[in-house]
């Protein structure tokens, strides 16, 4: 893996024709954009699927041209949630914040010319693209083959993600510019680094589990097979360790995957809130520690998913404590965000709005998470809708908000133009209201359908509520999805006709990516990279003329206030 | 920062970084790793920093370790919970294979010492023997597979068999990667490469010893769990 990366470091090497050169570019900026396009395609596919699911749930008979064909048979309907989940988790939540923005911005923010292994990076992207095609193909195949294709696609994606994780960690560790010490790293870079290390650990676990599934299928091994299931059933014990084996391995990955999606978002939000508050990040060191703690604790909480599946009676307690321990870094992060916002003169643009929307969603999603982390509450409250509401709010939607915030912020860097602010704000408010209308009632639906199981519950009154509530949720989804049309219009229009960004640093930000022109040159900073003199969040330093000091300006060149 | 005098004409602090400071300390050329030692503390002024290879292999090893840990934990869980676990008669040749692998690790270190001393011929000879021992190990594992199959234990026969074949197979594939690296160090012309032969040999040695240790771990696991 290491040795195959021979002569990848000459950025100016001419390659192939123009199209091939663009497609198979080893430039981290091109690859970052390619990942973002992949995420954009996947998010709209995934959203269409969720729409079909909700419509089927409320109006089973209704026929929508083209879309109905997606879920017309029971088998196909059952594959909808699977595909919706895998597209959203792998190709949107994992790809956009880490692989998309990370690839584009990590070398720029640390003053490097390229990623550590550019060829490997290019391979990772194209392998991921193949994996996406495989998943889509799995949807159209016969269920039995479809699931095999799907598992293989997941394996391919994981292999690519592992290579990217190695690439990211090596880049952040070894390729920093002169003077870019660890304490001067922007929080975004910290988040990407911690995330890459966490990903490297857990992706290989899922890869091993999927390899087990595939070898069961093709070689007839007995890891998760029915024969193994029967072999592990003692005569009179009801627990099933086999299902527990798959669940252990899977949740080991899946719980940490939530933090894989969230960690870069924490980085974005801290970064954006500091930039638009024109204040240093409050307790920056503590935030770095919190990011590391999220990575560490996220790695240890898998057991909380199995409260309802029967574990050793003592282990729920341990996992409950661990899961609740995650509250500590979460509170530190929230404290830092509010501390930074405190008495700040905010520049309330769309980017900051989305960042604040993230904080709101994270807070409300996190509160319902407290219920799920307590095992005695969890076994009562765990009903599909409650969990669905919880994790969509905290993982899916919150992360999407952070990605949108990042997109509005870095759009000038990515495309040399700005996104339209008024369209952006309309999009924000509609989406913000929409997602609360969708996912808050879901929590409530989960609680009341659970209460129906209590002795003496008034079933008829509960049943009358469930139908209208479901319709309300579906209407909410329709509005939210339509609001994304505004975003799409804004995106396409701004890409072609948006306001051109003349200066290199439109947001008056401090980090290195703004020290070069928008639409950064191919080799970023040229030879050597910029020297770095200070931390990433020097806003409103007393005695300085401007309200910010970029990291690369030598101390003797900083203008003093009169 | 306070105390220094800024030129009065600098009002806007945004400027082109390329013309800016720090240029005087720039290393003469980013390409060759021979003359970078003075700049090591800056870690990667040059994209070609050879240090990235050692970091990458360290991280890749952790990742591979997690892969095998997931399999090992599956082994422990299933072995512990199964009440019809069929014990395996592990082929005796596995002991020989283990000895060959440990011996190859030992020889590899001897070869690296030769390389550091500048004895190129001695290095090549020992390194070649190491590579051959790597191939011998893989061949020995295949013989073990055949012996087990002769006992009537196939991959699909029972759980113990599944784990045996998957453990040895996955380890063998990873080990073949190590053999490829050994061949690379032996055959590559390092005149034009970005890294020196000694660094490539060092990185390969980490991976090879890791494969060695991993095999001992798996062997102990299989032996105790047979």
Describe it for me?
The complex is a heterodimer of chains A (562) and B (226). Chain A has 16 helices and no strands. Chain A is mainly alpha-helical. Chain A has three domains: 34-224, Cytochrome c oxidase-like, subunit I domain (Cytochrome C Oxidase, Chain A, Up-down Bundle); 307-500, Cytochrome C Oxidase, Chain A; 505-562, no CATH class. In chain A, helix 2 (28-58) runs antiparallel to helix 3 and helix 4 (118-140) runs antiparallel to helix 5 (143-174). The radius of gyration of chain A is 24 Å and the shape is globular. Mean pLDDT of chain A is 83; it is low at 1-15, 235-239 and 306-311. By secondary structure, chain B is mainly alpha-helical. Chain B folds into two domains: 19-49, no CATH class; 51-224, Cytochrome c oxidase, subunit III, four-helix bundle (Four Helix Bundle (Hemerythrin (Met), subunit A)), CATH 1.20.120.80. Chain B has five helices and no strands. Chain B has helices spanning 51-81, 93-117, 120-150, 159-187, 197-224. In chain B, helix 1 runs antiparallel to helix 4 (159-187) and helix 2 runs antiparallel to helix 3 (120-150). The radius of gyration of chain B is 25 Å and the shape is elongated. Mean pLDDT of chain B is 79; it is low at 1-47. The chains are: A mainly alpha (562), B mainly alpha (226). At the A-B interface, helix 5, helix 6 and helix 8 of A face helix 1 and helix 4 of B.
């Amino acid at each position: 893996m290491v040795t195959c990366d021979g002569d990848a470091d000459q950025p100016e090497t001419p390659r192939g024709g123009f199209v091939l050169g663009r497609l198979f570019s080893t430039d981290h900026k091109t690859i970052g954009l390619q990942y973002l396009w992949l995420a954009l395609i996947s998010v709209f596919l995934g959203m269409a699927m969720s729409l079909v699911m909700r419509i089927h749930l409320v109006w089973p008979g209704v026929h929508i041209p083209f879309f109905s064909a997606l879920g017309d048979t029971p088998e196909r309907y059952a594959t909808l949630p699977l595909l919706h989940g895998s597209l959203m988790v792998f190709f949107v939540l994992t790809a956009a914040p880490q692989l998309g923005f990370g690839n584009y911005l990590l070398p720029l923010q640390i003053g490097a010319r390229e990623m550590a292994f550019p060829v490997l990076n290019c391979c990772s992207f194209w392998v991921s693209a193949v994996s996406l095609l495989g998943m889509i193909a799995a949807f159209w195949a016969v269920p039995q083959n479809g699931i095999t294709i799907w598992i293989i696609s997941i394996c391919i994606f994981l292999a690519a993600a592992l290579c990217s994780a190695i690439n990211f960690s090596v880049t952040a560790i070894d390729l920093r510019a002169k003077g870019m010490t660890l304490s001067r790293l922007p929080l975004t870079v910290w988040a990407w680094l911690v995330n890459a290390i966490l990903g490297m650990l857990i992706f290989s676990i899922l890869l091993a589990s999927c390899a087990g599934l595939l070898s069961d299928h093709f070689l007839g091994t007995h890891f998760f097979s029915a024969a193994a299931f029967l072999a592990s059933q003692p005569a009179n014990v009801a627990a099933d360790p086999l299902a527990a084996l798959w669940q252990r391995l899977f949740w080991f990955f899946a719980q940490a995957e939530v933090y894989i999606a969230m960690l870069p978002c924490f980085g974005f939000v801290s970064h954006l809130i500091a930039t638009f508050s024109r204040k240093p990040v409050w307790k920056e060191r503590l935030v770095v520690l919190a990011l590391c703690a999220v990575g560490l604790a996220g790695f240890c909480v898998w057991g909380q998913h199995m409260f309802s599946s029967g574990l050793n009676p003592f282990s729920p307690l341990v996992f409950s404590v661990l899961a609740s321990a995650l509250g500590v870094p979460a509170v530190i992060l929230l404290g830092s965000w509010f501390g930074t916002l405190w008495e700040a003169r905010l520049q309330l643009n769309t980017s900051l709005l989305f960042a604040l929307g993230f904080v709101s969603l994270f807070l409300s999603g996190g509160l319902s998470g407290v219920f799920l982390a307590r095992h005695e509450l969890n076994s009562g409250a765990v009903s599909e809708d409650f969990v669905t509401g919880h994790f969509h709010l905290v993982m899916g939607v919150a992360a999407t908000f952070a990605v949108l915030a990042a997109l509005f912020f870095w759009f000038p860097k990515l495309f040399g133009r700005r996104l339209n602010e008024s369209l952006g704000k309309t999009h924000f408010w509609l989406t913000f209201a929409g997602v609360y209308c969708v996912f808050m009632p879901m929590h409530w639906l989960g609680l009341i359908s659970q209460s129906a199981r209590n002795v003496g519950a008034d079933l008829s009154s509960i049943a009358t509520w469930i139908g209208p509530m479901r319709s309300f949720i579906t209407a909410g989804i329709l509005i939210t999805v339509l609001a994304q049309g505004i975003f799409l219009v804004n995106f396409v229009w701004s890409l072609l006709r948006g306001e051109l960004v003349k200066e290199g640093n439109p947001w008056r930000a401090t980090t290195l990516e703004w020290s070069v022109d928008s639409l950064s040159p191919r080799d970023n900073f040229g030879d050597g990279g910029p020297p770095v003199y200070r931390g990433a969040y020097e806003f409103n330093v007393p005695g300085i003329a401007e309200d910010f000091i970029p990291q690369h300006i030598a101390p003797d060149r900083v203008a003093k206030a009169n | 920062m306070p105390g220094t005098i800024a030129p009065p004409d600098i009002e806007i602090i945004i400027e082109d970084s390329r013309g800016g400071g720090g240029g005087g300390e720039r290393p003469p050329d980013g390409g060759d790793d021979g003359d970078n030692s003075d700049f090591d503390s800056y870690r990667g002024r040059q994209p070609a920093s050879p240090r990235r290879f050692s970091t990458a292999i360290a991280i890749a090893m952790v990742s591979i370790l997690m892969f095998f840990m997931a399999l090992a934990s599956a082994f422990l869980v299933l072995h512990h919970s199964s009440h019809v676990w069929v014990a395996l008669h592990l082929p005796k040749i596995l002991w020989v294979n283990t000895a060959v692998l440990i011996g190859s690790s030992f020889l590899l270190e001897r070869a690296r010492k030769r390389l550091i001393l500048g004895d190129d011929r001695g290095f090549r000879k020992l390194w070649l023997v190491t590579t051959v021992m790597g191939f011998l190990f893989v061949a020995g594992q295949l013989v073990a597979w055949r012996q087990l199959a002769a006992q009537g234990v196939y991959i699909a026969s029972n759980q113990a068999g599944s784990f045996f074949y998957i453990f040895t197979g996955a380890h063998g594939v990873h080990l073949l990667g190590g053999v490829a690296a050994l061949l690379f160090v032996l055959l590559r012309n390092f005149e034009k490469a970005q890294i020196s032969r000694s660094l490539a040999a060092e990185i390969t040695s980490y991976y090879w010893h890791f494969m060695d240790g991993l095999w001992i771990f798996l062997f102990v696991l299989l032996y105790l769990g047979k």
